[in-house]
């Protein structure tokens, strides 16, 4: 059929990603969001597609990586702040709280890339001069009509001037350019990672304590220059510490997580990752255990998270 201006209905429906600038990524290949629509005064539907293979968020035992969900949510809040709340490019977003829980059955890898709908409700919007200064988002991720995950996040939104004051002289590319070389990694089998560059823990003499390994040349975790350790690297440290605490020979996923970001983690001093298993008040299901992870830098706690690690053996 000839497609003409008089026959717009015949035009094929084409899918693209959203602009990479809206999700704060440099590489188009790392943009997972494909569109958005307004569903209500403070509600939105965001579409996403997950690749069947990814260089960092690896599929294991036929299941998508839950941290792929985390990155998808991380892209959702800059997208909506820019396109729906008119926040200019150049403003900085900072995580303060992030929670998620996935449905493992809906995380299965299939013949085609996973197509997701994220139903987002915004709340607790605090504004300064008509622009958001902080807000919360509740997100339900749906795949083929089935709930894949539920997530909740709270974050701040800072003008360039406010961000410079918050960073007290650390804002800009200087910290990134002058970041120390990464420390030696733990063994691959300890954290179930196949490539050395993907390992974010370095060994210490203490069994349940590691140094955070920060490799600013990593093409995914450091897709572009930043002046502090990214939140996604800290979430990855939770997964790796949970595995290193008690390795699962067949693979394990962080099926849920509750994380609190207390302060920026800097490049120029060591950050220590400590993990411990949490005793259950009731008998745990087979292949499930709960782990608490803390990140400490300088004089205090920078980040903490609790995760449920689930065996992914078929």
How does this model look, in words?
The chain is of the alpha+beta class and 314 residues long. The protein has two domains: 1-167, Hotdog Thioesterase (Thiol Ester Dehydrase, Chain A), CATH 3.10.129.10; 170-314, Hotdog Thioesterase (Thiol Ester Dehydrase, Chain A), CATH 3.10.129.10. The chain is built from five helices and twelve strands. It has a twelve-stranded antiparallel sheet with strand order 1-2-4-5-6-3-9-12-11-10-8-7. A hairpin with a 5-residue loop joins strand 7 and strand 8 (209-212).
Largest sheet: 12 strands, antiparallel
Please state the second-level CATH architecture of the largest domain.
Roll
Strand content: 35-45%
The mean pLDDT is 92
Q: What is the CATH superfamily classification of the largest domain?
A: Hotdog Thioesterase
The N- and C-terminal alpha carbons lie at a distance of 47 Å
Number of helices: 5
Question: What best-fitting shape do the alpha-carbon axes yield?
Answer: globular
The count of strands amounts to 12
Helix and strand pattern: EEHEEEEHHHEEHEEEE
Concise overview:
This protein is α+β, with helices and mostly antiparallel strands and 314 residues long. The chain has helices at 66-83, 160-167, 174-177, 188-191, 231-245, and strands at 33-38, 43-50, 92-102, 114-128, 131-143, 146-158, 201-203, 209-212, 252-261, 271-277, 288-297, 300-311. It has two domains: 1-167, Hotdog Thioesterase (Thiol Ester Dehydrase, Chain A, Roll); 170-314, Hotdog Thioesterase (Thiol Ester Dehydrase, Chain A, Roll).
Keywords:
314 residues, alpha+beta, Thiol Ester Dehydrase, Chain A, 5 helices, single chain, twelve-stranded antiparallel sheet
